[in-house]
Amino acid sequence: MTVQRQERNGFGRQIALIGLVVLAAAISICLDTCLAPAVRATTTERVVAARFSGLAIDGFDPVAYFVQNQAVLGLPDYEAQEAGAVWRFHNEGNRASFLAHPEVYAPQFGGYDPVDVARGVTFAGNPNFFVVVGQRLYLFGLEAHRDAFAADPGHFLPEARERWPQLEQMLSQ
C-alpha cells in the first residue's frame, strides 16, 4: 500500500489509536502493581484508607505494632469501624484494646508520613515502614524518612504537630 492510500484509509490513525490503548493499559497495570498500596490509598481523608476496600493501613493490625513490634496483617473476622475506616486486627484482644483506646493505637497524623506532614504536605504512610516512639505509632511513605525520624523524632514532631491541624482540615473538605 502506498503512503497516499494508507493516509486515505486512516491506517496511520489506527496505529496511533492502538498505541494509545496499549499505553493506557500499561499505565493502568503499573498503577495497580508497581505502586505501594499506601501510595494508592486515598489522600483526601483524615485517616489513610484503601480507596476501594476502606481498610485503614492496608488491613494491618495497629495494636500488633505495640504488642509484637512488627507489622501483622489483620483478619476479616476481627474488624471494627472507627474514624470512617475499617480496621482489621489479628485477634479479638487487639480489637478490644483498639476500640477502648483508638487515640493510642491508631497511627499518628492519620497514617500520613510525619516527615512530610512537617513539610506541610500529606503523603500516605506505608504500614511496613513504622516506628513506635513515645507510645505512639508513626507510619512513613519512605524508608529513608523512617530512618531519619527514628534517629531524631524531636526534629520533626514539633513542626508536624503544628502543621497537622491545618492539613487535617484541608483533608476533610
Beta percentage is 15-25%
User: Uncertain segments of ≥5 residues (pLDDT<50)?
Assistant: 28-44
The strand count comes to: 4
Mean pLDDT: 83
Radius of gyration: 22 Å
**H-E order:** HHHHEEHHHEEHH
Based on secondary structure, the structural category is: alpha+beta
Question: What would you call the shape?
Answer: globular
Assembly annotation = single chain
Largest sheet entry = 2 strands, antiparallel
SS element count, helices: 9
Amount of helix? 40-55%
Description:
About 10% of the residues have low confidence. The protein folds into two domains: 32 residues; 134 residues, no CATH class. The N and C termini lie far apart (58 Å). The chain is built from nine helices and four strands. It has 173 residues and is an alpha+beta fold. The longest helix has 23 residues. The strands form two sheets. A two-stranded antiparallel sheet has the order 1-2. α8 crosses α9.
Task: Produce the secondary structure layout.
Elements: H1 3-8, H2 11-33, H3 37-40, H4 64-67, E1 75-82, E2 85-89, H5 92-100, H6 102-105, H7 114-119, E3 126-133, E4 136-140, H8 143-151, H9 153-171
Antiparallel strand pairs: 1-2, 3-4
Helix pairs in contact: 8-9
